[in-house]
Amino acid sequence: MRKVDLTFIGHATWLIQGSKNVLIDPFITSNPQAQEAGITLESLLDKVDLVVITHGHFDHIENALDFGKLGIPVVGLFEVAQYLSAQGAKNTVGCNIGGWFEVEGVKMVFTPAVHSSSLIKDNGEPIYLGNPAGVVIELDGVRVYHTGDTALFGDMKLIGELYKPDVMLTPIGSLFTMGIPEAVKAVELVKPKIAIPMHYNTWPPIAQNPEEFKEAVKAAGLPTEVVIVKPGQTVEIVAS
Ligand code: NI
Ligand code: MN
């Protein structure tokens, strides 16, 4: 059976484990949800074959260099990859939004996201880190669409049609990303088999009830199954 194990590290950080282990948006050390789940950076350092970054915000790249300095490949948009390389990551792959490519036997395609991408220096000045993105990763026949931080946009329909994700990891926290009504519409556009909410309840300003999202998807008559995954929890995703 072709399948992967998907573990929620908390916030927007996910570990996909199959024939390769892929970590998306490594935010661990200061991630309250990872802390609460008892997940440490050390426990992940020797487990990960590949790190994938959606955009340059702190809550998505905090620990990228910890992996990068060990020589673990780090994939991200060109500006993010250049930045991490200059900071000491040994093996970065810079790419852009566009088409499929393969790193370490893992296929992926970066997709648009409506958001921003920068790191803020101590003096408040932003370091520009290119465009924000989402990513579809195909591992062992399973397609995982991590939307990145994003607002709702109509071209999600194209992402659904072209890439047919088995699972969609979607923010619902509002304030920085889609809230629940927007995420329900996003699910309608993408039509994944499974949708899993993320980027909520990390801090009080993005508090949301994921059950409301689940109920709203059901009330909209969508065939997608919403699965609520707690930080530290693993779910098995089977290929179509
Ligand atoms: Ni962000
Ligand atoms: Mn974020």
Strand order of the largest sheet: 6-5-4-3-2-1-16
User: Which sheet architecture does the biggest sheet show?
Assistant: 7 strands, mixed
Compute the average pLDDT.
Answer: 97
CATH architecture: 4-Layer Sandwich
**Secondary-structure element string:** EEEHHEHHEHEEEEEEEHEHEHEE
- Please give the domain count: 1
Present as ligands are:
nickel (II) ion, manganese (II) ion
Helical residue percent? 10-25%
Distance between the termini: 10 Å
CATH superfamily: Ribonuclease Z/Hydroxyacylglutathione hydrolase-like
| Poorly predicted parts | none
Summary keywords:
binds manganese (II) ion; 7-stranded mixed beta sheet; alpha/beta; Metallo-beta-lactamase, Chain A; 30% strand; binds nickel (II) ion; 240 residues; single chain; 24% helix
Any chance you could write out the topology, listing elements then pairs?
Layout: E1 3-10, E2 13-17, E3 21-24, H1 32-36, H2 41-45, E4 50-52, H3 58-61, H4 64-68, E5 74-77, H5 78-86, E6 92-95, E7 101-103, E8 106-112, E9 118-120, E10 126-128, E11 133-139, E12 142-146, H6 156-163, E13 167-171, H7 180-190, E14 194-198, H8 210-219, E15 225-226, E16 234-238
Nickel (II) ion (NI) is lined by residues 55, 57, 115, 149, 176.
